[in-house]
Please model this.
Amino acid sequence: MALVSRGFGRRRSATTDDRLPPGQYDTGDQFPVLSAGPTPRTPLAEWDLVVRGEVAAPQTWTWEEFRELPRESVSVDIHCVTKWSKFDTRWEGVSVDTLLADAGVEGSYVVAFSDGGYTTNLPLDDVTGGRAWVVDTYDGQPLAPEHGGPARLLVPHLYFWKSAKWVRGLSVRPRNEPGFWETFGYHDRGDPWREQRYSGD
Amino acid sequence: MARAAVQRRLTWLRARLTDNLPASTRVRRLVFDVDGWPGHLPGQHVDVRLTAEDGYTAQRSYSIASPPEDPRLHLLVEDLPGGEVSPYLTEEMQAGDDLELRGPIGGYFVWSAAADAATPADRRRPVQLVAGGAGVSPFLAMLDHARRAGDPTPVRLLYSARTADDVLGGDLLGPGATVTLTRGAPPDWTGPTGRVDGALLQEHAFPPDARPRVFVCGPTVFVETVATTLVDLGHSPSAIRLERFGGTGDPA
Model:
């Protein structure tokens, strides 16, 4: 049983409680920015997206080729480990299922890697089956650099550090290997509904 | 080492408030005795959890403002109007009250003399701190730690505050610190004024040639702007580490 804080009471609306994972609050119209280093600015002419690692056929798309892939619109709630959640965020991009379709995946894990050196690890099951996208559009506009543009991973059912900004590819791995924040003590999987914030949660 | 230190399972610990002191016009210094605190590195943070009578809980993260050498944990909490947790911490909590916290959290935005000693290549590089507002909090832990440890690493701080009354840290700031005031300075003010920009960084921060390790902490927009400016000035992106404050308070 948690310690009760004398005189502390709820000050926020309880109407969205069923959509708020434990320990989270609704940040409303705000869209906070978090990143460990400076925002990279890769020109689109130099940008590509790759699928590599334990695959039969590595894949590469230029920006123009990526933009020609079948696209989906998704409207989802997102949850950041720093406690904010944001409801009904609207994105457009390409399903990871589409990106992996012709690769011949031979591993059970992926490491997403980004401009600037960021990485994050995910089980293959968490990025397939219509649960993850590489998105380039937020709220009808090109994704802003500070939010991960030109393109970021979107894995809304996990804490948002798994939705790697400035993503440049997925490396399929035979084994699970921790990514950037996972190495610094954050949870390996990061399910907000199980409040998997830190290693051991 | 930092990495080993954060791989422990983080359990909720009982923390007893010993002091709730004004730190500036809008910030209070909360001092806690924490049962079983495992120690921390300067730059790390804690999660604080409040629980209401009806079981409702709220959690927030706060940087630790005190050095590892201090047995008590200091948090600098800005009173954010309309907030749920900060008004409780700053206005309601009294000495003797308990709350729950866990940590230390984060192994990236840290600097310590011990970590430097383990990485001799880093040790020769100076440390540049750039703070906006209450974002100075983790840097006060670093500065206090450097002073107590007698560490020879050159450390500079460039610190943007609204007014002279908003400046946190007092005598910890020392000769290596430059404060710039963004919303008016008193008549006898001899330091710079205005926001942290390229010119201020060139004048008051270690130059890229010195290969400083750069830490930037503050509101979202401040951090984004300073980080971009540092890269434009020639600092290596990989040398720049960021931490953002006020997740709810600043439009992004």
